[in-house]
Amino acid sequence: MSKAEERRYAREWTFLETEPVARGDATAVVARRHAQMPFPPLIMLPHNLKRSAFETQSIALFWDVYFPANKRIESTSRNGGIICRNWTLVIHRLDLNDSTLRPALLTFCLARLGEIHNDRSVTEQAINIYGTALKEMSHALHDSRKVQSDEVLVAGKLMSLYEMFYGPTTPKLKTRGANWRSHIEGVIKLIEIRGPRQRNNKDTHTLFVDTRVSAILAAIVARKPNFFAAPQWCKLPFETEPKDPADYLHDIMAILPMLLQEYDLLEYCSDRARTHQRLVKLFDRCKATDQALQRWHARLSSAFPNPLPSAIRKTTEEANMPNQRRFSSFDLSDYGLATTLPFYWATCNLVHTLTHMVLATLRSSGAAGYGEDLSEHMNPHRSAISIAHSVDYFTAPEMGILGPQLFAFPMAVAFLYFRTFNGPNAEEERQGLRASMERLSRSGLSLETFLASLQAATNKKTTPNSLEDAWAKGAQAWYGDNENLGTMQIESGKPHAGH
DSSP class of residue 14? Predict the structure, then answer.
């Protein structure tokens, strides 16, 4: 690994350097909080605690804060063949005494407990242990054997999750988003080191698939493709573990960063004829991507007796909708479908919005043959509505951290859309999303701060000075001037239901 790659975890972290906390101290903090905690008992363990005892207590604490409703996500393939491949399925089979994984796991758990109980001492313990976790990660990156371990990969994921919800608040808004991105880039690099032919192991494949999704989302946010879009990375890792419908959706999502990058690069093309050729090609690629999305939706729909839902709602809200699939935030038997559809809607929204923007540019340039409006199913308002109407399911208290983590990207896509475009109930939907983010903040999950920080970290041309300013500059970076969107005729407030 090169010096630059090693610095992915080292850079921008100097403010966290503190004295490491002794192992016994960390468990003492957990035990001290027990009398005030609505969690299962955690015994006071001695300094020389045995591996099995530590692993049992760590896993119990992790599930209590990550997904309190169901404790542990179980793998399932009952939903149209969609297999649950959440990375947390792997944790209980790893070595939790690993010097890199252990402090990362404790950092995450203690940070959550500190927020829940508004206990600054616990929060400071988490920060101290985080300093240890960063040092251990740096050591692991210099160890050619350990750098290939699943423990190191999961430690990186835990630290990115810590930054997402509990990262430090600093005067520079972009710091938290930049720190998260550094962890994600580090985890992506660990996967790249292994190569596209991953070890023939279900746990390793689960980690690969989960990291692949994170990498694709990071590429979309950066508007720049990474190696996961290469054909070999879409094919070779699945030679022994066949793709499920979610994997095929991720293949389509991996195309989007290339489309966004091409649109951005057109700004620097001074040759008018060449610009026109590239616009026409981009328009065709956008429409081809939409067709791939609609084929995907049709194939998934054929696996169910009833139509796929236009939003993910709680069971109680579906009582008067007999032909819609019902979901419950207390039961993850529908995990695969419930967590896949919001990514489909978010991808549709971005592809359809980009298609309208390209078409508007072609028309403004006087190009002939582009007078016909796009199909109604390409109205991006519909997919944004589907996301907005699903927010209560994913932000319910019973969903713990799992729900907001999964829904962060679709939520940001819908919020930026409603912030930029007017349409039926656009202001109402935007306020609803903002209220959900504020509710999460009051529960200790500062998701909006993270999303705004990520916007600020990605948009390097400007430095926002507030959350609202970050969202405004983020919307400008994504959608430019509204005058370029003249082809978007928003007439329907109906949610998205596929082609």
Answer: G
Q: Look at 21-30, 162-171, 233-242 and tell me which has the smallest mean pLDDT.
A: 21-30
Whole-angstrom distance, CA of residue 88 vs CA of residue 71: 11
Highest-confidence segment of 20-34, 295-309, 326-340: 295-309
Q: Name the CA dihedral angle for 376, 427, 216, 237, rounded to a multiple of 10 degrees.
A: -60
Is-contact 187 211, C-beta < 8 A? yes
Residues counted in the chain? 499
Say whether pLDDT at 152 is over 80: yes
Which pairs with CB-CB distance under 8 Å and at least 24 residues apart come from 285-292?
A: 285/255, 285/259, 286/259, 286/351, 286/354, 286/355, 286/358, 287/355, 289/252, 289/255, 289/256, 289/259, 289/351, 290/348, 290/351, 290/352, 290/355, 290/378, 292/252, 292/255
Determine the Cα–Cα distance for residues 364 and 374; give it in Å rounded to an integer: 16
- φ and ψ of 431, to 5 deg: -65, -35
- What are the CA-CA distances from residue 403 to residues 1, 280, 339, 399, 447 (Å)? 34, 39, 9, 5, 11
pLDDT (average), residues 299-308: 83
> CA dist 487 to 282, 363, 378, Å?
16, 9, 11
Report the pLDDT value the prediction gives residue 116, as an integer from 0 to 100.
Answer: 78
Who has greater pLDDT, 74 or 355?
A: 355
Dihedral of alpha carbons 299, 300, 304, 310, sign = negative
Judged by DSSP in three states, 355 sits in helix
Identify the CA nearest to 475 among candidates 426, 422, 413: 413
Please give the Cα distance from 219 to 229 (Å, whole number).
Answer: 10
Query: Are 458 and 177 spatial neighbours (Cβ–Cβ below 8 Å)?
Result: yes
Read off the DSSP letter of residue 98.
-
The span from the CA of 265 to the CA of 282, in Å, is 11
Four-residue CA torsion sign, 151, 157, 158, 159:
positive
The C-alpha atoms of residue 410 and residue 73 are separated, in whole angstroms, by 21
Q: Judge whether 386 and 495 are in contact, CB under 8 Å.
A: yes
Instruction: Give the tens place of pLDDT for each residue, 251-295.
Output: 999 999 999 999 999 988 888 899 999 999 999 999 999 999 999
Kindly report the CA angle at 240 between 235 and 245, in degrees rounded to 5?
60
Phi-psi region of 444 (alpha: psi -120 to 50; beta: other; left: phi over 0): left
Pairs from 194-200 (Cβ < 8 Å, separation ≥ 24)? 194/148, 196/232, 196/233, 196/235, 196/236, 196/237, 197/236, 197/237, 197/239, 198/237, 200/240
DSSP 35: G
